[in-house]
Amino acid sequence: MKIQPINKDSKAQVDDWIDMRLKLWPEHTRDELADEASQLGDVIQVWLAYNDDQPVGFIEAGTRSVIEGSYDGPGGFVEGLYVGQDYRYHGIAKQLVEAVEAWAKQQGYTVLGSNAEIDNETSDKFHKAIGFREVDRTINYLKDL
Ligand SMILES: CC(C)(COP(=O)(O)OP(=O)(O)OC[C@H]1O[C@@H](n2cnc3c(N)ncnc32)[C@H](O)[C@@H]1OP(=O)(O)O)[C@@H](O)C(=O)NCCC(=O)NCCS
Question: What percent of the chain has pLDDT over 90?
Fold first, then answer.
């Protein structure tokens, strides 16, 4: 298993990343996810997990100015995390988060935030198993103006 930062100059790696984004966010089209990814540019950091040459997971992380539950100012934030069904429970997501932790520390951050859909029990158990603590539960609202 290899965890590596994405090389965005590699079309093959970007394709692998977008394919997995589509698995994580199937409510979007591949084109939408590819457009968003290219617009995000360097705002997000991406690591890919490969088993031999097979892409098996990814993590996206960035900086948020406020991290819920912390008064320490800006911190790192996990924006997306996915491991393929056949590769779960092998510690891959944990290693992906560790790559983000190392990056966040390098940036001088003292906290790493993350979130999940309120009914995503897998994600809840995963986060708690690797040392995150729950700080609150929210519902997002929107009003058209
Ligand atoms: C959540 C997800 C990324 C976990 O990936 P994974 O590679 O299987 O996780 P790991 O093997 O690194 O697990 C790390 C720890 O979490 C625990 N864990 C992972 N999934 C779990 C589950 N469904 N229930 C209970 N514990 C779980 C593992 O047992 C392990 O604990 P341990 O170190 O005490 O043994 C993966 O299930 C996934 O991609 N799910 C669909 C997308 C998703 O929900 N993403 C997260 C959105 S925030």
Answer: 97
- Tell how far the Cα of 121 is from the centroid of ligand 1, in angstroms: 10
Residues 6+ apart with CB under 8 A from 78: 59, 60, 61, 97, 100, 112, 113, 114, 115
Overall domain count for the chain: 1
Q: How do residues 13-22 score in pLDDT, each as one tens digit?
A: 999 999 999 9
Residue 114 lies in a domain: yes
- CB of residue 120 inside a 6 A radius of ligand 1: yes
Residue 118 lies in a domain: yes
Q: How buried is residue 87: exposed, middle or buried, by Cβ count under 10 Å (0-12/13-18/19+)?
A: middle
Describe the chain by its helix, strand, coil percentages, rounded to 5: 40, 25, 40
Indicate if ligand 1 lies below 6 Å from the C-beta of 84.
no
Is 76 domain-assigned?
yes
In a domain, 138, yes or no: no
